[in-house]
Amino acid sequence: MGIDWAPKTNRIVTCAADKNAYVWTQNEDGKWTPSWVLLRTNRAATCVKWSPKEDKLAVGSGAGIISICYFASENNWWVSKHIKNPDPQ
């Protein structure tokens, strides 16, 4: 499981062994609301990190894939593009 906080935008991103990630935003009443991140991975999401601008995030998985995620406002969720680790051979 992974977690990271974006201090400028006050958002939290989490990922877990259930292959899911969520971006959590705090409402005005203090309640945290999750927004789903579409990872498209078949293994556990093991680590997560916000970009310096806090507009993208990276999620690593047990499959050796890194997902670069960004918010798609037309769908109201986070989508990802995969970067595969190069073959070590």
From TrEMBL:
Its main location: cytoplasm. Coiled coil: none annotated. Signal peptide: none annotated. Keywords: Actin-binding, Cytoplasm, Cytoskeleton, Repeat, WD repeat. It is found in: Cytoplasm, Cytoskeleton. GO terms for biological process: actin cytoskeleton organization. It comes from the Eukaryota. InterPro entries: ARPC1, WD40/YVTN_repeat-like_dom_sf, WD40_repeat_dom_sf, WD40_rpt. One of its GO terms (cellular component) is Arp2/3 protein complex. One of its GO terms (molecular function) is actin binding. Belongs to the WD repeat ARPC1 family. This is Arp2/3 complex 41 kDa subunit. It comes from Trichogramma kaykai.
